[in-house]
Amino acid sequence: MAAATISLLVMLSLVGFVHGWPYFPLWYTHVLINNTIPGEFLTIHCNYHADDRGVHVIAPSEQYKFQFKPNVWGTTKFSCSFGWSDVSHHFNIYVQSRDYDNCDKNCKWLIKSEGPCYIKSDDFCDLYQWD
User: Closest by alpha carbon to 35, among 110, 130, 125, 115?
Assistant: First the structure.
């Protein structure tokens, strides 16, 4: 019985090593947030449960980035608040069930006044509504 259990664990480890998911995420996911609001400093605060990334102020055309390892349950979700002038919004900048397969380790976002825009390619982004 012990040999079968060890063999199963070794096989799962090898599958997780080769595929990286869903068994054991081996790499970090990077979230890059670019401020594209003309002439406005963007205040951002992101967190996932106790993993609080703090408050950051991003100048126009500048970026904020952070990294993390998605959890094995597929439930990682980073929520962020965004503010400039007298405007305040919220958006889930990373939702594992939505973003894991799309991001390929790098989730790039443009923050626009009308909403966050996920960068799919050099010349296209997918605009989301604020939460």
Answer: 110
The residues, ordered by sequence, that sit 6+ positions from 120 with a Cβ below 8 Å of its Cβ are: 102, 126
Spatial contact of 129 and 115, defined as CB atoms under 8 Å apart = yes
The CATH code belonging to domain 25-127 is 2.60.40.10
Higher pLDDT, 93 or 131: 93
Angle at 97 between CA 77 and CA 54, to 5 degrees: 15
pLDDT band at 12 (very low <50, low <70, confident <90, very high): low
Instruction: Give me the sheet containing 63-68, strands edge to edge.
Output: 63-68, 29-35, 106-112, 115-121, 124-127
Of these ranges, 4-8, 85-89, 123-127, the one predicted with the greatest mean pLDDT is 85-89
Q: Are 69 and 53 in contact (CB under 8 A)?
A: no
Is there a contact between 65 and 31 (Cβ–Cβ < 8 Å)? Answer: yes
